[in-house]
Design goal:
Layout: H1 2-16, H2 32-38, H3 47-59, H4 100-108, H5 114-119, H6 123-156, H7 164-187, E1 192-197, E2 202-207, E3 217-218, E4 221-222, H8 226-233, E5 238-241, H9 245-248, E6 259-267, E7 275-283, E8 289-300, H10 304-321, H11 330-358, H12 362-373, E9 375-384, E10 389-395, E11 399-407, E12 415-421, H13 431-440, E13 449-450, E14 453-454, E15 464-465, H14 473-482, E16 504-509, E17 514-520, H15 522-525, H16 530-541, E18 546-551, H17 554-568, E19 571-573, E20 599-604, H18 610-619, H19 624-632, E21 645-652, E22 671-672
Parallel strand pairs: 7-22
Antiparallel strand pairs: 1-2, 2-3, 2-4, 5-6, 6-21, 7-8, 8-9, 9-10, 9-15, 10-16, 11-12, 11-17, 13-14, 16-19, 17-21, 18-20
Domain PPM-type phosphatase: 259-652
Keywords: Hydrolase, Metal-binding, Protein phosphatase
GO molecular function: [pyruvate dehydrogenase (acetyl-transferring)]-phosphatase activity; metal ion binding
């Protein structure tokens, strides 16, 4: 028995040195069974079965493909039979690793390395090599992961007394949260919700993912303290008295008591803020007020356009007003205001690009084209102090609402506050604007407004700048050749311009019951309705304190609007312009614009600035935790929850109310137009 084992082992040793090419002359069939049972390629679990298979394989007929190589080893016709394969079409055959002839054919096709056949095929060797490779990959991956987490922890952590492994665990969890946020930002289909934990001093802005994805994101941010909230709200607030002490000494106060004062405030969501505001004045020869201009400007695509319009719109309109012979001619004044808007927009959009194309240079383009490529909505109020006329010109979705104090019909001596809109949001949701654009672009009725936006991209239908919706295709292609970073025209861009800066102008004769005018960008109107804004300011003027709980009922708002129509009859507009507010269009798969129906909790604590009072109630009201959480979200994440907010509140006449401009500055804050 031991002798036979030695023979088998010696035969196996000789078989390991057999050359790769199979040659039956050098390896007779009488030794094939010994080679099959003792070679390393044989299965260790079933040696007898493998040996039997080897014997049977040598006696079977061999199947060769039609295109087998001519260098195949010579064989006799008695030991090999060629079987045709389905009219010359080659069919895949399963290779038998125990057949030496098939091993040779596979080698000629480049299937195995020579070293494997020289020593025989050993699955255990490959399994061992795979385990080693997997172990090396695991070790390398662990090292890289630990290194990355350590770097991430070092770059983002502050001084801490916790152990190294605790910091690693904490930063690993934060890294997972950041990765989830990046993933969710691509799959999120709906807006986020805000939840706060006042006991922990943190809050979690939760992004609800689409219904087909279970991924969610919750990032912990430190909530502002009450002191920081107050500091943030008061950062940009200012109030002014238009009537100074010297003017109060004048005998003829009729010329000076129309505008008592005004207050402003801005709270940014973008960084830097894209909103801007203005306040200009044209004085008479004796120094008294003649023409006063207030404006709020909601920029988009950057701040360049809104800043330029804030600086130059009032002077542009003032120049046109000088050409009006009779200031009591309302239509002539409206025409002059429109010309002032259009001439400034032509200067921003067309004159600059012609100068750049005539003398192409990047510094000139950067200084000239940025206001044209970006855009800005514009809302301007012009007050003719002598005639006591109020003109409101709107291009975009900012809004002006007049607060009217009327005697109560039920309670003698009491009064109520009414909201009279002096502008309407000009967006792709406004039926009047949709109808106008469809009439101006026949044949494009289905593409000029898509998803409530112009060509599916821009929401305001009127704005300064936005040259991408105004330039001709030829000019846009020339700009694109000079500056490849500029975006090419829209797919359905056929008959520009699609956006105009021509405003809708309203006129209103200021009466004693007209107490204040609220002008604000859409960041405020996304949170509060016009009636809520007027009621909040009116209650503040009446000296209301504490908190109030209100329910936003849209049916009740419709009833209130029907009662205000009589007051709206005092507002004059040009023929064809929108004269009353309608329900906005709600495109498919989009939520309605404006605040949702819900219970509101308002607070009354900002006695010195009505603009700050409105900002507070728009972002949280009586819910201090919600207010702190909303203000704590940094940009650009904050854009999910709020927009830039800019508010100007102008007070008319003698305010026989309990509110006084206690913190008002002595100067009127108006920029003089010369």
């Amino acid at each position: 028995m031991s002798l036979r084992l030695s023979i088998l082992q010696s035969a196996a040793h000789r078989g390991a040195n057999v050359p790769h090419r199979w040659n039956p002359r050098r390896c007779p069939s009488s030794h094939s069974s010994l080679f099959s049972t003792s070679a390393p390629s044989a299965s260790r679990s079933r040696p007898a079965q493998t040996a039997t298979r080897a014997k049977q394989t040598l006696n079977q007929q061999e199947v060769l493909p039609p295109n087998s190589s001519s260098s195949a080893p010579p064989t006799s016709s008695s030991s090999r039979t060629i079987i045709p394969l389905n009219n010359g079409r080659q069919q895949p055959q399963k290779r038998d690793r125990s057949d030496p002839a098939q091993q040779q054919q596979h080698h000629e096709r480049g299937g195995h390395q020579q070293s494997q056949h020289a020593r025989g095929f050993n699955p255990w060797f490959h399994l061992h090599a795979s385990r080693r490779a997997a172990f090396r990959a695991f070790v390398l991956g662990s090292i890289l992961t630990a290194t990355g987490v350590t770097i991430y922890s070092t770059s983002t952590s502050s001084s801490s007394t916790s152990s190294f492994f605790d910091r690693i665990s904490e930063r690993w969890a934060q890294l997972q949260s950041d990765v989830s946020y990046a993933k969710t930002s691509f799959t999120n289909s709906s807006g986020p919700t805000l939840s706060s934990d006042p006991s922990a001093g943190t809050f979690s802005p939760s992004f609800s993912s689409n219904p087909f994805s279970a991924s969610r994101f919750e990032k912990q941010l430190k909530m502002l303290s009450p002191e920081q909230v107050e500091e943030r709200l008061a950062q940009n607030q200012r109030s002014f008295r238009v009537m100074t002490k010297e003017q109060e000494k004048l005998k003829d106060k009729a010329k000076q008591d129309l505008i008592l004062g005004y207050c402003v405030n801005q709270v940014a969501s973008n960084n830097p803020i894209e909103d801007d505001l203005s306040r200009h004045v044209v004085r008479a020869k004796d120094g008294s007020l003649d023409k006063v201009f207030f404006g709020v400007f909601d920029g988009h695509g950057g701040w360049c356009c809104s800043q330029k319009v804030a600086q130059e719109l009032a002077p542009s309109v003032a120049i046109e007003l000088e050409n009006v012979k009779d200031p009591r001619d309302v239509m002539a004044v409206m025409e002059a205001i429109e010309n002032g808007f259009l001439k400034l927009d032509d200067k921003i959009v067309n004159e600059t690009v012609q100068r750049v194309l005539a003398f192409p240079s990047r510094p000139l383009a950067c200084s000239s084209l940025l206001p044209a490529i970006s855009g800005s909505c514009a809302l301007m109020a012009y007050v003719d102090v002598k005639e006591k006329d109020l003109y409101v010109a709107c291009a975009g979705d900012s809004r002006a609402v007049l607060g009217v104090r009327e005697p109560s019909a039920t309670d003698k001596g009491a009064h109520t506050w009414k909201a009279v809109p002096l502008s309407f949001d000009q967006t792709g949701r406004n039926r009047w604007e949709v109808r106008r654009l469809q009439e101006e672009h026949p044949g494009e009725e289905n593409t000029v407004i898509m998803r409530g936006r112009v060509l599916g991209g821009l929401e305001p239908t009127r704005a300064f700048g936005d040259a991408r919706y105004k330039w001709s295709t030829e000019i846009q292609e020339r700009v694109f050749r000079l500056f490849p970073t500029y975006r090419q025209p829209h797919r359905n861009y056929h008959t520009p311009p699609y956006v105009t800066a021509k405003p809708v102008v309203k006129h209103h004769k200021i009466r004693p019951e007209d107490r204040f005018l609220v002008m604000a960008t859409d960041g405020l109107w996304d949170k509060l309705t016009s009636n809520e804004v007027i009621q909040l300011v009116g209650d503040l003027l009446d000296g209301k304190t504490g908190q109030e709980r209100m329910i936003l009922d849209r049916n009740e708002l419709k009833a209130i609007k029907s009662k205000v129509k009589a007051i709206q009859g005092m507002v004059t507009s040009k023929n064809g312009d929108q004269i009353e507010e309608e329900e906005e269009l709600t495109p498919a798969n989009l939520p309605p614009k404006g605040p949702a129906s819900q219970v509101r909790q308002f607070t009354f604590k900002d006695r010195s600035n009505a603009s700050t009072h409105l900002v507070r109630n728009a972002l949280g009201g009586g819910n201090d935790d919600m207010l702190a959480a909303t203000l704590s979200i940094p940009p650009p994440m904050s854009r999910y929850y709020r927009d830039d907010i800019t508010i100007t509140v102008i007070f008319f006449g003698e305010q026989d109310t309990k509110m006084a401009l206690a913190g008002a500055e002595e100067a009127d804050g108006l920029v003089e137009i010369v």
